Structure of Nicotinate phosphoribosyltransferase:
Amino acid sequence: MRPVIGSLLETDLYKFSMWQAMLHRHPATQARYRFLCRNRSAFPLAELVGDVQREVDALCALSFSADELAYLRTLRYLSSDFIDFLRIFRFQRDFIRVEAEGMNLAISVEGPQVHVMAFEIFVLAIVNELYFRRVGSAAALDEGRRRLQAKIRRLREFAQEPPRRHPFRFFDFGLRRRYSGSWQREVLTTLKQELPEFFTGTSNVLLARELDLVPIGTMAHEYLQTFQGLGYRLRDHQKAALEAWVQEYRGDLGTALTDVVGMDAFLADFDLYFAKLFDGLRHDSGDPYVWGEKALAHYARLRVDPSTKRLVFSDALDIERCLDLYRHFADRTQCGFGIGTHLSNDTGLATLNIVMKLTSVNGQPVAKISDAPGKTMCDDPGFLAYLRQVFGVKA
């Protein structure tokens, strides 16, 4: 059977953007990432150890081809020296460990961040596809096609509603938790054909290239978390990360992620300078309506016209939630909707809630304090308590 991953382009765009920023500014940073499954699986994931190891071996044999590098050069925000780095890049097998811990699957990566940070999306896609090879079926794919057509019909009904000030746009964020690579390709091909007025792109760089879609993404939690371990005063790590991003991309990729230490703490750092330089904000945890109202109120206090900014929603979305949020906000600000599992793995089967998160930088713990308690992740309770204290975030 062919390996799950056949190209190093088959990752999320924000991996490339964060990778370039770290290579240019902090190339010597050491980092550790850890895999976690947050829910119960149909069988013990430890049973996948041998298959995951073989897939990782195949991943570590890949390199970027000349035509893949040529495509990346068309993305104006990726610099020529970064593309040259990718030309010689190859994953090192010694930096990743895959083993069983009881009934659980234990995966960790550790080494220079610019050599290990890209493992995340590939590992998650591998585990997910191996899992659904065992629990999936032709009937599940038939159900997935039925549900996809229902989504298309629903959006065609929505198209008959009176227009609002800003258009409705959604995109695919489903690579890491997809049913399979072939299923994600089928879904995106169908959406492009059937809903070109609404469906605008994907985070999957390989499919963006092959299907002529816009690659979409900016930063993830790991980018801001990294700055907790780079020697900045902890209270200033968000501002340092945002400033480094501004200097790196100078107007491109201008959507900031807000929930590394919670929305309130983020907005305390997101002053007029950043509000003018970033195009908008991305929601990934907590009540999206409360979050959006806080964002618009913040722009109003800064006397920034919210109609010139964009709110991107990306937390556990389905079509109805997207449409409700759109109706709520679209007359006041631009909106975008990044849909993950509901597009790439909606087949009627229970899905895995798997993540692979940054846990330490240069030997120091880092943490994410989400606006949703279940998403908070840190291996060091003492550091987590200290981070809460510094930013005034209640437990």
